[in-house]
Amino acid sequence: MKNWFLQKNDNDQKIIVGLAVFILILLLYTFLYLPLKRNNEKLESSINDIQTEITTMKQLEPQIARFSGVTVETNPMDDSQMMSLIEQAANEVQPPIVLSNIKSQSKNKISVTLNNVAFNAAIRWLDILQTQHHISISQLSVEAEKKGLTNITALISH
To answer: Would the pTM of this model clear 0.70, i.e. be above it?
Structure first.
C-alpha cells in the first residue's frame, strides 16, 4: 500500500490524503457524533417529560391525597400562619365563632379555647380545619353548657 501511494504524483497523493481525511471525519461524524447527539436529545426530551409530570403531580397532589385517604402537607406552616388559618376558619362558619383563647403550646401545636359556642357551629369549624386546611385535631375536650352551647378546648397540630 505504501509503495502504491509513493508511486503516485504529488497532486494524486494530496487528493488521496484529502479523501482519507474526509472519509475519517465522515465516519467519526456518522458513528460517533450522531449517535451521541441522538441519545442526548432523547435524554433532554425525557427530562422535560419527567419535569412536566412532576409539575402535574404536584398540582394534582391534593386530589390524589383526597382519593387515596392520605393527608399531604404541601407547605409546612409556622405557628402564626396556622393561627391565621384557625381564625379564618372560625370566621367562615355561620354564625361566626369567637375564639376565646388561642396560643402556641409547642412547635406545631396550638391550643384553642371556645366558650359558650353553638355546638353545630364548632363542629363545622373543626370540619373546615380538617378538610380544607389539612389541620389535625390532636385532642378535643367538649363540655356542655346551656341549650346547645358548649365549651371546647382543642389541641391542634399541623
So the answer is: no
